C-alpha cells in the first residue's frame, strides 16, 4: 500500500502540533520555521522531499506517519536518549521509540545511499564540498605545554582537531 504524500505546510503543522505550539499560523513564518528546524534538524520542505523520496523508494507504507520520521530526525540532530524522545513525543514505551527511531534512521541511510555519487560517477567538471566532523586525534604532548593542544574528548590530553 502506498503511503500518503504530505507537503511542507502539512509537515510544519504536524511538527508544531508535536511541539504544542498553538496558533502558530499567526506567528512570523521565519520564527516558526526556525523553531521547527531547531526541534527536528531539518526544514519542513526538506521533510517533504525526504518523505517523497522514501515513498518513491517504497520505504514507507500507508501506516507510516510523519511523526516516525520526526523521531529519527530528532535523534540524529539532538542525539536524545530514549527517555528524552519518549518525553518529547509523549510516547510511553521505550520499545516503540526504539522501533520507529532505528527503522527510520535506516530508511534515511538508504535514502542517502541512493542520493550519493561515487568518485567514479563524478564528471570532471563537478565541484564537491566536503565537511569533516571535527575528529580529535591523540598526539604526543608538545613541549612546552600549551592549552591550545587540549581536547575535551580526551580528558584534556593533547589532540589535533580535524
UniProtKB/TrEMBL annotation:
The organism of origin for this protein: Seminavis robusta
Upper lineage: Eukaryota, Sar, Stramenopiles, Ochrophyta, Bacillariophyta
The protein's name in its UniProt record: Uncharacterized protein
Domain of life: Eukaryota
Amino acid at each position: 500500500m502506498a503511503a500518503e504524500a504530505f507537503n511542507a505546510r502539512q509537515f510544519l503543522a504536524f511538527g508544531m502540533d508535536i511541539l504544542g505550539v498553538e496558533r502558530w499560523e499567526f506567528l512570523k513564518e521565519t520564527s516558526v520555521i526556525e523553531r521547527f528546524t531547531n526541534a527536528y534538524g531539518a526544514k519542513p520542505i526538506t521533510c517533504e522531499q525526504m518523505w517523497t523520496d522514501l515513498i518513491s523508494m517504497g520505504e514507507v507504507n500507508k501506516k507510516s506517519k510523519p511523526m516516525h520520521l520526526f523521531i529519527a530526525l530528532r535523534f540524529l540532530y539532538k542525539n536524545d536518549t530514549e527517555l528524552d524522545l519518549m518525553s518529547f513525543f509523549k510516547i510511553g514505551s521505550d520499545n516503540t521509540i526504539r522501533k520507529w527511531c532505528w527503522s527510520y534512521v535506516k530508511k534515511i541511510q538508504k535514502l542517502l545511499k541512493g542520493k550519493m555519487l561515487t568518485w567514479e560517477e563524478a564528471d570532471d567538471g563537478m565541484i564537491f564540498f566536503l565537511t569533516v566532523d571535527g575528529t580529535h586525534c591523540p598526539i604526543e604532548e608538545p613541549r612546552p605545554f600549551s592549552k591550545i593542544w587540549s581536547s575535551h574528548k580526551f580528558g584534556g590530553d593533547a589532540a589535533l582537531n580535524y
